[in-house]
Amino acid sequence: MSTNTKIKKQNNWTYFKKNYEFYLLLLPGLLFIALFKFLPMGGLVIAFKDFNIFDGILASPWVGLEHFKAVFSDEYFFQVFRNTLLISTYKIAFTFPLPIIVAILLNEVKNMTFKKNIQTVIYLPHFLSWVIVQGLFVTILGSTGIVNQILEPFISEPIRFYMDKSLFRSILVGTSAWKEVGWGTIVYLAAITGIDPQLYEAAVVDGANKWKQIIHITIPSITSTIVLMFILRLGYVLEAGFSQVIVMYNSTVYEVADIIGTYVYRTGLGQMNFSYGTAVGIFNSVVAFVLVISGNLMCKKALGKSIW
Amino acid sequence: MKNTKGEKIFYFFNYIFLALLGVTTLFPFLNVLAKSLSSEKAVISGKVSVYPIGLQFGTYKYVFTNDQFLNSLKVSIFITVVGTLVALAITVFTAYPLSKPHLKGRKTILLMYIFIMLFSGGLVPHYLLMREFHLLNTVWSLIIPAMVSVYNMLIIKNFFESVPESLEEAARIDGTSNFGVLFRILLPIAKPVLATIGLFYAVTYWNAFFEAMMYVSKPELKPLQLYLYELIKQSQKPILDVDAALNLNSESLQSATIIASTAPILVVYPFLQKYFVKGIIVGSVKG
Predict the structure, then answer these.
(1) Which residue has the higher pLDDT, A118 or B4?
(2) Is residue A117 within 8 angstroms of chain B, CB to CB?
C-alpha cells in the first residue's frame, strides 16, 4: 500500500468518525423513500406486462407496448385528456390573476387590524379537505340550498348543479377559487413587501396618484414573481385537481369531469385493469415530469430563480 | 398626508371589496352552522341562511353519540398525532444533514428527494405495494403515504442553512456532538418553523381522504373524512331524498357532522396562523 492511499483511507476514517451522525440521521428518510417511493417506480414495469394479481409482477408475461397501443387507440382516453387540459386551463385563466389583484388591494389597506382579519379569514379554506368543501357546497347548492332558494322566483324547478354537465366545470373552478385564492396571495404579498418604499415616496412627490403608483411601481416590481408563478403553474397543467374531482364528481358528469387521475383510479383499481391503468399513469407521470422540469429550466434561464 | 378625493373613493371601494371577499369565504361555514342548529323542517323549507331557525342541539347530540362517527374520530386523531410526530422527526432528521454543504453525497441525496417530488410510480403500483406488504386495511396504510413531504423538508433545510455557522461552532468547541447541536442549538430556535411544518403535516393527515378510500375498507378503520364523504355521497343520491327527509341522513345532521369534522382545524388555526406565513416565505422561493 502506498502512503498516498493510506492517508486517503485515514482521511476517510476521520471524516466518517466526525460525520457518522449525519448519515445515521439520514437513514430513516432514505429507507422510507427506497421502500415507498422508489420501489413502486419498479412496479411501473407492469405497464409492459400482462399483469395478473395471482401470478405477481415477476411471473406475469411481457407484452411490450400493447397496453400503450390500447391507451392511444382508446377514444375515451382522449376525452379524459381533453377534460384534464380544459379544466386546468379554466382554472389558470380564472384563479391565476385573482390572488395578484387581491394581494395588491390588501397592500393598500391602511387599517392593520382589518388587513390581518381579512388575511386570517381568506387563508382558512386552504386548510380544509375537499370532502369538507364538498360538504359545504353541496349544502349551499343543493335542491333545498340557499342558492336555489334565492333563484326560486326566476326558475321553474331547483337547479341540480352537480348533475348538470354544462355547470359542473364551473363548480370545479369556482370552488377551487374559493379554496385557494386567499392562500395564493401570500407569495405576492411577500413580493410587494420587498418593494423599496422610497419608490412610492418619489412617485408621490412627482404627483402620481394611487392608480399610477400601482401601475408603475407595484406591478412592475412583482412582475418577476408573477412570471415565475405562471411558468410553474403551467408546468402543473396536467394537475387538474385530482382530489377535488374524485370527491365532487359523479357518473352523470363523467363526460365533462373525468380527468386522467380519476380515470386511472376507476380503470386501474376499480375495474382491476392494473396494466392498462399503469400505462395511462406512466403517460401522465412522464409528461408531467417533462413539463415541470422545462418550466423550472425556463425560470432559471429567464429569471435566475427556481423552486429547488 | 391628505387623501385626494379619488383616493378616498378608491379606499372606500377597496374596503368594500375585501370585506365582501371575507364574507364570501365565511358564508358557507355560517350557512352550514346555522343549518346544523336548525330544525329539520326549517332546513327542508330552505329558509335557513346564516342564523338558526327552530334552534336545536339534538343533531350534535346525535353526532357525538354515533358510534361510527366517534370511531372515525378516534382513527383520525390517531393518524394525525402519530403521523405528524413521525413525519416531523424524519423530516428534521433529513433536513439537518442536507443543510451541511460539506457533507459527502449531499448532492446525490438531494437529487433523489427532488426526483420523488416530481415523479411518482403512480396509483396502481402504490396500491400493489401496499397489498404486497400486507398493509391494506391497517392504520399504517393511512400514515405511510404522507410521511415525507419533500417540500416541507426543503423549508426546514433552508431554515437550518440560514442559521449562522458561528452558533454551531461555539457549541462544537465546547465538545457538543452533531446530535447535540441539532437538539440543543438548532431545534430550540427552529420552533416557529417546526410549528408551521407540524401544522402542515397535521392538516395533511387530518384531511387525508383518498388514501383511506383506496387502502381501507373495514368500517372501524375509516377516518373522519371518509366517513363524511360516504355520508355526503349517500344523501346526494336522488332516490334517497324523500327517505332522508324522515330519516337519520337528514341535512341538519349532515351539517352537524361537517361542522364537527371541521372544528379541530378551526380551533387550532388561529394560534398557528401567525407562524405559517413566516415559515412558508422562508422556504418557498429560492433566489
Answers:
(1) A118
(2) yes
